[in-house]
Amino acid sequence: MSHVTTHVLDAALGRPASGVPVVLLSEDGIILAQASTNADGRVADLGPDALEPAVYRLVFDTASYFAASGQTGFYPRVTIDFELTDAASHYHVPVLLSPFAYSTYRGS
Question: For the Transthyretin/hydroxyisourate hydrolase domain, which residue ranges apply (predicted)?
Answer without folding.
Answer: 4-107
